[in-house]
Design brief:
This protein is α+β, with helices and mostly antiparallel strands. It has 3 helices and 7 strands, in the order E-E-E-E-H-E-H-E-E-H.
């Protein structure tokens, strides 16, 4: 076949000594229903992104037409994680690849009326999944990864896929759902709210001051939590802004703390050095990649 991806492949080139590797991981057919990206700071969950592959597609990676749905965990809004649902209009007959793909949502009702598609709705308890992940999995995660002496990363993400048995798009009761982590990312997670400060050839002089006020405020809240959790990991403080309430959401951050503090005129007190200079989205891809800013898109 023809290698058409942006990457070069060659995952095994140079062998183990050169870091060549592939992950032996079974295919989860329910990827068509989307994957859940839990955005984490230590064990604090900032929010979740439900990333759904584009109609006819199999990948939830940004830039492929996939759709992203954002759920805050009480960080930049008053809404914490809870239940969510997703409705799709799915082919009655499998495609050539053997899968039952969804069609564009706006075309769904007409296709249902024509008899080629049917309406399907899946349900997810985001908070129950977060609670189980943080309370049961995180305490043993580093040991399980054979890194027992390493702390949980400061800023990282976990992408979860529904691995429940049964056919894709056939609803599974929440209590019976089984979710698996398809990927961890902790090498280059960034603050996508700062993308307007990302220096590119066509915007070489942008800075913190170019970030809209609302997004700068959100970035500051994220930054405050990262700083507080970093201090806790270093033993500098016992609690602080990263302290969590019972729902796992960060407690209220101190007002105007951190890099986004404003002077009396409302302007940033001082732009953080190199703010956004090499900003990546949450998945590590360069910032120009998604209209899904904040989605954490990544390449494959």
């Amino acid at each position: 076949g023809e290698w058409a991806s942006k990457g070069t492949g060659k995952y095994l080139e140079g062998g183990k000594a050169a870091g060549g590797q592939l992950t032996d991981q079974r295919f989860c057919g329910r990827i068509l229903e989307g994957e859940l990206r839990y955005n984490m700071v230590n064990t604090v969950c900032l929010g979740v992104i439900h990333k759904v592959p584009a109609p006819g597609g199999m990948s939830a990676v940004g830039g492929t037409g996939s759709e992203y749905f954002f759920y805050d965990n009480g960080v930049i809004s008053d809404t914490k994680l809870g239940n969510c649902d997703f409705t799709a209009y799915v082919q009655k007959e499998a495609s050539a690849d053997g899968n039952h793909h969804r069609c564009p949502t706006d075309e769904g009702p007409a296709k249902v009326e024509a008899g080629t598609h049917e309406k399907k709705t899946i349900f997810i308890d985001l908070e129950a999944l977060r609670k189980k992940f943080v309370e049961e999995d995180c305490p043993i995660m580093m040991k399980t990864l054979e890194l027992p002496d390493e702390p949980i990363p400061l800023w990282w993400t976990a992408d979860m896929i529904n691995a429940s048995l049964g056919k894709c798009w056939e609803a599974v009761p929440v209590a019976e759902q089984k979710w698996v982590v398809g990927e961890f990312n902790c090498s280059c997670v960034g603050v996508s709210k700062c993308l307007p400060a990302y220096c590119k050839p066509d915007t070489p002089n942008v800075s913190w001051k170019d970030i809209p006020a609302e997004e700068a405020g959100h970035a500051t809240k994220y930054g405050d939590i990262v700083g507080a959790e970093a201090a806790k990991l270093l033993g500098v403080v016992a609690g602080g802004a990263g302290a969590k309430d019972e729902g796992g959401a960060p407690a209220e951050a101190p007002p105007d703390a951190g890099a986004g503090a404003k002077d009396e005129g409302g302007a940033p007190a001082e732009a953080p050095p190199d703010a956004g200079a090499g900003a990546k989205d949450e998945g590590g891809a360069p910032a120009e990649a998604p209209p899904d800013a904040g989605a954490g898109a990544k390449d494959e």
